[in-house]
Specification:
The structure is a homodimer.
Chain A lengths: L7 H15 L7 H8 L3 H13 L3 E4 L5 E4 L8 H8 L21 H18 L21 H12 L1
Antiparallel strand pairs in A: 1-2
Helix pairs in contact in A: 1-2, 1-3, 1-4, 2-3
Chain A binds a DNA duplex through helix 3.
DNA sequence: GAGCAAGCGGACCTCCATGTCTAGATTAAT
DNA sequence: ATTAATCTAGACATGGAGGTCCGCTTGCTC
């Protein structure tokens, strides 16, 4: 198969969180988020619940309900989102379960652990705020028309 | 679940290749490799076939048969092994399939692509030779007694 | 307070990575 | 030539990630 750095579900979670970061205030419904992120709606609902349990987003029920971030986009790192879905762990003990009480990993797992450490450092330094409009042009999710899309969705409802 | 940098199968492939690198010449049978790497034998057989198809190892059948590397350990990188099992791909186009002919990824996928690039660079610079006895003490796969284990296996058969 | 929009939660389905099993092909040794 | 060891190849089993569906709960709006 094909190596994916992140699981599909984690990708979905990141997309959704970025969309919510883009919409600074107000609630966004699951169905709107599903449209914008191109994630199957019923599945996205589950992903959002995971994010809610990790206190990254909060939902409100009822008419006009939806989700929003629990804190500022600057305060939410990629690592936060990743760990909410499927956490990254350093390699602490030998995966073969051999006697290595000394805590010294073999070269293979040492190198792998270094790579994981690198990724964690990388991801913990990137916030949701970095994901929206780093260029002059704002395009949160690849789509040049994200801005108008969001606005259309808003006006379509109001 | 839990994020794993590499798939289980890729881990297995690396372990096996490292064991073969350690045994500089001569053939090692699948069953010996399975014991040393702690990989289910029948599954390891499949993994070795994948490595053989990618020309990283060659097998010889019959009594006294087994596997060996096709070239020196210094000539086989981690990336070679990884790509033989499940290749790492850079992100070239938007995973959402949106109009981005310009070739410019959104911040999210740009960051992810950078991480992947980092990993590829890392992995392509590490060879199987780096995996055996980087420390004074030789311990290819976490096990301090790897050396004696291999020798035992050899003498046990001869 | 009735009705409806939306999140919540669980049951269920599907596919693929991982793993098992078995029969066949090849080679060395006797 | 026969036998035993070993790789090769494919069919089959299993568990978990990804995805669907439906009924329940909450809380607007009128």
């Amino acid at each position: 198969m094909e190596v994916r750095l992140l699981s599909q579900t984690t990708e979905y979670a990141l997309r959704a969180t970025i969309c919510l970061a883009y919409r600074q205030e107000g609630l966004v419904s699951t169905s709107d988020l599903a449209t914008m992120t191109k994630v199957p709606m019923n599945y996205l609902a589950k992903v959002l619940q995971l994010l809610a349990r990790s206190n990254i987003v909060t939902g409100r029920r009822g008419v006009g309900g939806g989700y929003k971030l629990t804190r500022a986009a600057e305060e939410i790192s990629m690592l936060d989102v990743i760990n909410a879905i499927d956490p990254i762990h350093r390699i602490k003990t030998c995966p073969l379960g051999l006697d290595n009480h000394s805590g010294t990993l073999c070269p293979l797992h040492r190198k792998l652990d270094e790579s994981i450490e690198m990724l964690i450092n990388q991801f913990s330094g990137i916030t949701m705020a970095d994901m929206i409009g780093e260029l002059g042009d704002i395009r949160p999710l690849c789509d040049e028309d994200m801005t108008t899309q969001v606005e259309l969705t808003m006006s379509g409802k109001k």
